[in-house]
């Protein structure tokens, strides 16, 4: 089943995000199986990163929760809010990018 994982950073946490970024990227690249989409969320200015989002296939919600629990940003305490929701892809088209 697909799950959307929305992870919003705590305010004033850019330094923590930067310090943990390499471990986060390594973790995500090691867990691409079932990954449909993932990347940083941006503030209204279109440049400032203030969270992360992933849409990924998991066997169940417990597996999605385990994925988040082991995520380096989460382990470092970066996130203020984490939302995990089942997701049904109705439109699923590859990007031309």
Explain the overall architecture:
The chain is an alpha+beta fold and 97 residues long. The chain has 3 helices and 4 strands; from the N terminus they run E-H-E-E-H-H-E. Strands 2-3-1-4 form a 4-stranded antiparallel β-sheet, covered by helices on one side. Strand 2 and strand 3 form a beta hairpin. The radius of gyration is 13 Å and the shape is globular.
List keywords for this structure.
4 strands; alpha+beta; four-stranded antiparallel sheet; 31% helix; 97 residues
Q: What series of H and E elements makes up the topology?
A: EHEEHHE
Terminal CA distance reads: 26 Å
Estimate the helix proportion, in percent: 25-40%
Structural class by helix and strand composition: alpha+beta
Shape category: globular
Number of helices: 3
On the 0 to 100 scale, the average pLDDT is 94
Strand portion? 35-45%
List the helices and strands and how they pair.
Blueprint: E1 2-9, H1 14-30, E2 35-42, E3 49-57, H2 61-69, H3 72-75, E4 79-87
Antiparallel strand pairs: 1-3, 1-4, 2-3
Give a summary of the structure in a few sentences.
Helix content is 31%, strand content 35%. The chain is built from 3 helices and 4 strands, in the order βαββααβ.
């Amino acid at each position: 089943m697909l799950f959307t994982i929305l992870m919003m950073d705590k305010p004033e946490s850019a330094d923590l995000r930067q310090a943990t970024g390499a471990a986060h990227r390594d973790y995500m690249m090691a867990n691409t199986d079932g990954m449909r989409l993932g990347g940083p969320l941006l503030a209204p200015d279109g440049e400032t990163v203030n969270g992360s989002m992933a849409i990924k296939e998991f066997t169940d919600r417990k597996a999605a929760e385990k994925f988040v629990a082991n995520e380096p940003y989460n382990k470092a305490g970066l996130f203020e809010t984490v939302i995990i929701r089942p997701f049904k892809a109705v439109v699923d088209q590859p990007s031309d990018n």
